[in-house]
Amino acid sequence: MTTATGSRERRDQIVRLATETGLASVDELSRMFGVTASTIRRDLARLTAEGRLARTYGGAIAVTAHPESSLRQRIGEDFHAKQAIARWAATQIQAGETILLDAGSTVGALAHELRHADLLTVATTGLTALLELADVETVHVECLGGTLRPLSQGFVGPLTEAALERMTFDRVFLGTDGINADGGICEADLRQTRLKELMARRATQVYVLAHAAKLNHSPFHAWARLPLPWTLVTDAHADPDFLDTLRTHGIHVVVATHQPPGAADRPATDG
Questions:
Q1: Model confidence over 207-222: pLDDT tens digits?
Q2: How far apart (Å, rounded) are the C-alpha atoms in residues 3 and 86?
Q3: Contact yes or no for 128/155 (Cβ under 8 A)
Q4: What is the value of pTM for the model shown?
């Protein structure tokens, strides 16, 4: 296959094949499609950048059985839980602070909550947060540019990392695709996990915003380890036993409760 259409078809077949088998090597794919190993590596690099595959260090590719959904698809998922998480997170931010916002739908919901903030500096790697705050005169916005991942609508890569080194933050709010029992956070792309680790090191207070469906969930093969202590902010559907396990690893846990319209404010629970 040498045409653009043939290349797209080959990449689509690679995704289908590896999703079914779970693991495929460069050599296997090269033989199967009758192309060079370098052609396959270019295919894999493009598929990884698009978030359709996750690469391993050994030259093989590990493809999740749970393909990464786009930000547009995720925005409507667990809406009330994300809203409760975002509202609690917004209460932690004080006027005059400098904060860092990750990409993602829940962090984007937090950005929406900050539209009425006073004298705030917000740096972000996410287009959602950037668009939410672009017209807010009382919020100074810094965009940490870099390579845009279309699926997550977030910037990654060396330019983003270089920009991070020039700032420090009072608080950072991170999103994630999954959290396992020992407190690791999961993403579809190794560039994302590296960036999250760097973001966490630049902030005094670290929060991970994740609704219950993302807990004890490992959909991808790229992981980040955050410096302790950090705070998980989740919702009332979270498994209490799993939250207790996270606490044993030194992670602070906050359970944010959704407030129906007109309900009196009730505090979130924590432990």
A1: 999 999 899 888 777 8
A2: 46
A3: no
A4: 0.71
